[in-house]
Design goal:
The protein is of the alpha/beta class and 331 residues long. The chain is 44% helix and 18% strand. α4 packs across α5.
Length: 331
């Protein structure tokens, strides 16, 4: 491999790096040593496609590889590159467009998820050796019970608005923990699906309404949640303003608006395929939207990435209602 790398001209090296996917691979492998399968999860590409890119890069002298058991790990070691290749990479690495930076941020999030999964796999292995408890627990009880059980920490005599409830995922999780859930959506088919899903649950009220004009009294709920909703809304500010209007101010966890949505990404095809109005949101964009809606931004946290998912990364953001409402909903 080194002999071939020595004979590779600068023009040939540039040709290898003319493919944007190979540039992304190199950026990841400059910092991490990963297998083909792990890279496939990071880039959400078939292993055959990733393997093809790795072969081209390795043949051109950009990568080193080593075997660990049955796995092959790939890495770009900057100090091991030929002098001209190293100089070329240092120049290319600094030339990043906005789109490149967004890709790099998403790749980094997925690498974090892959590495976490690698650690989990290792721990599970030792767990099986020590008594197979993880496998037994999953077989007996499944994988969701821990997260659902932890929701009991949020239990209280609260009224929660699930705005843009869709098929009722959030309402289903919160209904056993709170006094009442008001599930709002402007799509009748979605509301009907939510009604079917929550059939027999007595503390969920279904409301058909546009989110920028809620038929709810001011200050009538303790919390408002918008799960994967804002990217469908052309102008999120009126929606957030309405969410703030119906939430009464409080202390602790009360008096908050919670948003779960996609981090800023470059998948423009989502506009045509699913009618997305926004390609996710950055921290700065969410803080600006909250402020424009008269809310006080509080937290913004990217959520851990499941390496087996194919969508962009997600975040959870919260804002607090400014001021304290009196009886009747007036400031």
């Amino acid at each position: 491999m080194k002999d071939r790398a020595i004979d590779t001209t600068v023009a040939e090296r540039l040709a290898v790096l003319s493919d944007r996917s190979r540039l992304r691979v190199l950026r990841v492998l400059e910092s991490h040593e990963l297998t083909v399968g792990e890279l496939s999860k990071v880039f959400q590409s078939p292993q055959s496609t990733v393997s093809r890119h790795l072969k081209v890069l390795a043949d051109a002298g950009w990568l080193v590889r080593r075997s660990v058991g049955t796995a092959t790990l790939y890495r770009m070691v900057l100090d091991d590159l030929a002098t001209d290749a190293r100089a070329l990479w240092l120049v290319i690495r600094e030339q990043q467009s906005v789109s490149d930076r967004d890709d790099a941020a998403e790749d980094a999030r997925r690498v974090t998820g892959v590495l976490a999964e690698r650690r989990t796999d290792s721990q599970s292995y030792f767990g099986r050796v020590a008594g197979a408890w993880d496998d037994v627990r999953q077989e007996l009880f499944g994988t969701r019970f821990t997260a659902i059980a932890m929701l009991d920490l949020l239990s209280g005599p609260w009224v929660v608005a699930d705005l843009g409830c869709g098929t009722g995922n959030i309402a289903e999780l919160l209904a056993p923990q709170v006094q009442r859930v008001i599930a709002v959506d402007q799509s009748e088919p979605m509301l009907e699906a939510a009604r079917q899903r929550l059939q027999g649950v007595g503390n969920v009220e279904f409301v058909s309404a546009a989110l920028n004009k809620l038929p709810l009294e001011s200050g009538c709920v303790d919390l408002a949640a918008l799960g994967l909703v804002l990217h469908h809304v052309a102008d999120p500010v009126p929606v957030l303003r309405e969410a703030g209007r119906v939430v009464r101010s409080g202390s602790g966890l009360l008096g908050r608006v919670l948003v779960v949505d996609m981090l800023r990404h470059q998948r423009s095809e989502y506009r045509q395929l699913m009618g997305h109005q926004h390609l996710g949101f950055s921290r700065g964009e969410m803080e600006s939207l909250f402020s424009q809606a008269g809310l006080e931004p509080m937290t913004f946290r990217p959520l851990p990435v499941d390496p087996d998912t194919r969508g962009p990364g997600l975040f959870v953001a919260t804002a607090r209602v400014r001021g304290r409402r009196r009886e009747g909903g007036r400031e």
